[in-house]
Amino acid sequence: MHRHRIAAFLVGCLILGSLFMIFVATQNFATVDRVLAAPPQQAAQILEKLGPSDSRLLLRYLAGEENRFFFTNWELAQIAFGVLLTAILWLAISSPISAGISGVVLIIALFQHFRVTPEMIALGRLVDFGGEAGSAAYNQFWRLHGLYGVLEVAKLVLLLIVAGILLFGHKAKTAEAIPLESTIADQA
Fold this sequence. Notes:
- The chain has helices at residues 2-37, 41-50, 52-92, 96-128, 136-176, 180-187.
- By secondary structure, the chain is mostly helical.
- It has one domain (2-177).
- Helix 1 runs antiparallel to helix 3 and helix 3 packs antiparallel against helix 4.
């Protein structure tokens, strides 16, 4: 029973963490607009010296750096959680379907971390300072950004499937394990 709870906890961590990262990524860039629209007095003086264009550029670069840091580290956490979850599902719970789905989530996280994210980070830094719309770097960055988003949605869907299997598949097995005759005999 504890194995199922641990697996469900890990799935919950992965789902909640992914949803939180979506929130963080969008809010980091939205904060730039909020700060520029109504900066605190001390910041307003600095922003005036930089000028509106450079202020926006610098703050968007900072938001991008924060996102790059958060996503790189979240991917490492996903890999650790994914290895642990897959091992529990395969070895402790003996659920090959859930373990297989969890393994696919792990493979996606590995692909993102070692293939997509490094290139997206490099291109993002190029685009942050002077990447013209329509340039090859700009277009490639947005293609990778789109791919990353699709992979995130795929991981969430797969994790929801694993959560469903853990929640509903486990209860069905537990109910089947208690024969009705023995329950009636025990009461007599």
